Fold FYVE-type domain-containing protein.
Amino acid sequence: APSYWVPNKDVHECSSCKLVFGSEHSKHHCRACGYIFCDTCTTHRATVPLLDIKTPERVCDKCYDKLQPSTLSSVFQNNYVHTQKTNPSEYETGGSDSSADPNLYHIPMSRRFVELVTNNVGRVMYDYPIKHIKESTRPNYWRPDSECHSCFICKHRFNNTTHRLHHCRKCGEGICDTCSPNKRPVPEREWFTPERVCKSCDEAMDKIEQ
Ligand SMILES: [Zn+2]
Ligand SMILES: [Zn+2]
Ligand SMILES: [Zn+2]
Ligand SMILES: [Zn+2]
């Protein structure tokens, strides 16, 4: 049996209706949560994203509800909205960025998010790792916000007004607005439209191009 299945011998009652299993009852594993249920509590069949099998499998009533496509998409949407709301600096909303051209940032970010959904469809369902999503939607070469206390170049402490935290798309360091005045494509990081780069990367890239 798959490792996430609760062992048969340890279970004496249905995890849902608490029916005590006798010799006349059969035990069934829910393919999604792995718990054991009676016949009547596992009448539904659903495709379980975790299993990578495209045919509907036996699931318990609770998991059946969770696995409905409408529920799935609302879970993703909620997480996504939640992530954006709680981290205004992370997506560099506000400031000069959003007024310049909002599409500039939305194209690569939304593309990354779509990839994330297809990769993690199983995980997101089961433990709602909001933190995990937050980390994955940002490029992994970026220095985490928690480590960015002051600008990598001018060393000024970050705040929400004059020295907002931004990330250089080239080196991934946390930098302030003043130290990242220019935008340019960074093809080696898969940014093909002009994106924020820090002063020192900007100069370094200038030298290479000359
Ligand atoms: Zn039952
Ligand atoms: Zn279940
Ligand atoms: Zn700075
Ligand atoms: Zn840089």
